[in-house]
C-alpha cells in the first residue's frame, strides 16, 4: 500500500508504508526505465535520514544491489547512487558494511567519470569514508591515484575533498602519499589562491611531516619560505597547520637552519605574544610556535636571538592565569634558551 497525502513529487517514487518501504524501493531499482530507478533512488535518499531505515538497508543486504547502479549508463543514476552511499557512509555500521561489500572498486572507477557532478559525489563519499579509521585504511591503495588527481582537477570543492581524504588516509600510513611525490604535489597547493585549498594542503603536509622522510623533503624542496609566509595569514587553521609542519621540520638540522635564515623567530614570537585568548585553536597555535622556538634555541644563533626576547617567554611561563600546557611549553623554551654547558 502506498502513502496517501498531497500531490506526489514527480522526482520521487511512491513509498510504501512501514518496513515495506525500503524493500519496495530496492525492487524499483531493478526496473529497466532509468527514470524509475532515479525516482526510487531519490526516495531512498529521503528515507536514509532515518537511522532505522539505514539499519534495515544494511541488515537486509540491499547494499550489493547498488553495485550495478554505479555502472549505470545514466550519469544521473550514477550520481544519485553516490549520494545515497554518502548518506549511508555517515553511519559507522553502514560504512563498515559498504567497505566489506564489493562496492569500493566500481566506486573508485567513478573517479574518472565523464560527469563532473558524479565525480564530485564520489569524492564526497570517499572523504566521508576516510573519516573512519577502517575507511582510511581501505582507501590507502587509492592514494597514488588521488595524488594524481590533484594536478587534474580544477573544481575547488573537489580539490578540498581530495586533500582532506589524502590527509585522513596518511594518518594511517604516510608511505603511499610520500611515494607518490606527495610533498611536491601538496607544496604546489600551499600557494593556491583559495584559502580553503591552502588550509587543506597545509593540513595534509603536516601529516606527511610526521615522519623523517617527509621532513627531509619539506626542507629539500624549499617549502619552508612558503610555510613561514602562511604563519602570517588571517585564517587560524592555515596558521596552525603551517606551524605544525614547521614544528616537525625544525627537528632536523636543515629545518632549523632554513628557519633561522628566513628570520622566522620574529614571526613566531609575534604569534606567541598575541593577547591571551581562550579559543582552543589559538592555544594550539601558540603551543606549536613555542615548540618551534624551543627547537630553534638548540642552535647557537637561535639561542642568541631568543635570549634577547627572554622576558616575553618568561612572562608566558609564569602567568598564573595562563593555560597549563602553554605555561609548560614556555618553561621548556626558557630552559633550553638559558641552558649553559
Strand content: under 5%
CATH class identity of the largest domain = Mainly Alpha
Please give the radius of gyration in angstroms.
25 Å
**SSE string, helix = H, strand = E?**
HHHHHHHHHHHHHHHHHHHHHH
Major sheet characteristics: none
Query: Based on DSSP secondary structure assignment, what is the total number of beta strands?
Result: 0
Supply the CATH architecture of the largest domain.
Alpha Horseshoe
InterPro entries: ARM-like, ARM-type_fold, Armadillo, RSP14, TPR_DAAF5
Organism: Sparus aurata
Domain Dynein axonemal assembly factor 5 TPR repeats: 90-261
Protein name: Dynein axonemal assembly factor 5 TPR repeats domain-containing protein
Describe this structure in words.
It comes from Sparus aurata. InterPro entries: ARM-like (IPR011989), ARM-type_fold (IPR016024), Armadillo (IPR000225), RSP14 (IPR042856), TPR_DAAF5 (IPR057978). Helices cover 68% and strands 0% of the residues. The protein has 341 residues and is mostly helical. The chain folds into 3 domains: 10-131, Alpha Horseshoe (Leucine-rich Repeat Variant), CATH 1.25.10.10; 140-262, Alpha Horseshoe (Leucine-rich Repeat Variant), CATH 1.25.10; 265-341, no CATH class. Helix 10 (156-172) packs parallel to helix 13 (195-208), helix 15 (224-230) runs antiparallel to helix 16 (236-249) and helix 21 packs antiparallel against helix 22 (324-337).
Amino acid at each position: 500500500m502506498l502513502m496517501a497525502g498531497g500531490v506526489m513529487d514527480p522526482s520521487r517514487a511512491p513509498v510504501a508504508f512501514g518496513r515495506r518501504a525500503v524493500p519496495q524501493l530496492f525492487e524499483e531499482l531493478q526496473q529497466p526505465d532509468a527514470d524509475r530507478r532515479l525516482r526510487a533512488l531519490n526516495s531512498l535518499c529521503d528515507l536514509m535520514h532515518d537511522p532505522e531505515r539505514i539499519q534495515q538497508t544494511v541488515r537486509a543486504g540491499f547494499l550489493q544491489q547498488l553495485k550495478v547502479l554505479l555502472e549505470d549508463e545514466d550519469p544521473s543514476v550514477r550520481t544519485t547512487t553516490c549520494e545515497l552511499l554518502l548518506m549511508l557512509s555517515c553511519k559507522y555500521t553502514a560504512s563498515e558494511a559498504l567497505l566489506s561489500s564489493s562496492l569500493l572498486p566500481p566506486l573508485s572507477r567513478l573517479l574518472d567519470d565523464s560527469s563532473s557532478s558524479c565525480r564530485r559525489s564520489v569524492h564526497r563519499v570517499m572523504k566521508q569514508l576516510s573519516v573512519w579509521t577502517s575507511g582510511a585504511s581501505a582507501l590507502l591503495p587509492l592514494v597514488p591515484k588521488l595524488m594524481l588527481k590533484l594536478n587534474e582537477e580544477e573544481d575547488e570543492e573537489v580539490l578540498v575533498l581530495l586533500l582532506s581524504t589524502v590527509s585522513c588516509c596518511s594518518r594511517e600510513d604516510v608511505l603511499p602519499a610520500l611515494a607518490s611525490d606527495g610533498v611536491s604535489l601538496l607544496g604546489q597547493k600551499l600557494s593556491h589562491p583559495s584559502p580553503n585549498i591552502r588550509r587543506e594542503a597545509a593540513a595534509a603536509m603536516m601529516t606527511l611531516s610526521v615522519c623523517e622522510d617527509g621532513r627531509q623533503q619539506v626542507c629539500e624542496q624549499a617549502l619552508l619560505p612558503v610555510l613561514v609566509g602562511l604563519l602570517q595569514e588571517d585564517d587560524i587553521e592555515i596558521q596552525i597547520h603551517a606551524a605544525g609542519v614547521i614544528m616537525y621540520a625544525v627537528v632536523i638540522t636543515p629545518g632549523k637552519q632554513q628557519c633561522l635564515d628566513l628570520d622566522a623567530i620574529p614571526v613566531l614570537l609575534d604569534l606567541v605574544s598575541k593577547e591571551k585568548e581562550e579559543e582552543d585553536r589559538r592555544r594550539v597555535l601558540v603551543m606549536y610556535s613555542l615548540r618551534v622556538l624551543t627547537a630553534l634555541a638548540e642552535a647557537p644563533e637561535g639561542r642568541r636571538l631568543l635570549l634577547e626576547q627572554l622576558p616575553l617567554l618568561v612572562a608566558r611561563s609564569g602567568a598564573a592565569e595562563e593555560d597549563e600546557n602553554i605555561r609548560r611549553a614556555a618553561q621548556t623554551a626558557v630552559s633550553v634558551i638559558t641552558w649553559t654547558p
